[in-house]
Design goal:
With 86 residues, this protein is mostly helical. The chain contains four helices and no strands. It has a domain of 58 residues.
């Protein structure tokens, strides 16, 4: 559903109620967090003590860049990690 469609179908009051419900009663599952937890648990026995990866290591983005320069740095770093800079 697009943001525009959501705005047409749901009032801000209902959205606030859903946010409160997920915060205090039943959180919406985060597939990245769940996958990171499983992967870190699987890899943990094969790592040296104290070097096991954290679940957050498997999330694609910790926090989005706030400025164009930061976004450019993130993209250049990703390019280097993937081996496109030879």
């Amino acid at each position: 559903m697009t943001v525009a469609e959501l705005e047409r179908r749901m009032s801000s009051q209902e959205l606030g109620e859903w946010i409160a419900y997920t915060r205090y009663f039943q959180a919406i599952p985060d597939p990245w967090a769940e996958t990171g937890l499983v992967v870190s648990a699987i890899l943990s026995p094969y790592c040296e003590k104290g070097t096991a990866p954290k679940a957050s290591d498997f999330n694609p983005i910790d926090s989005p860049p706030q400025h164009n320069d930061q976004a450019r740095e993130v993209l250049l770093d990703l390019r280097k990690q993937l081996g496109f800079d030879d």
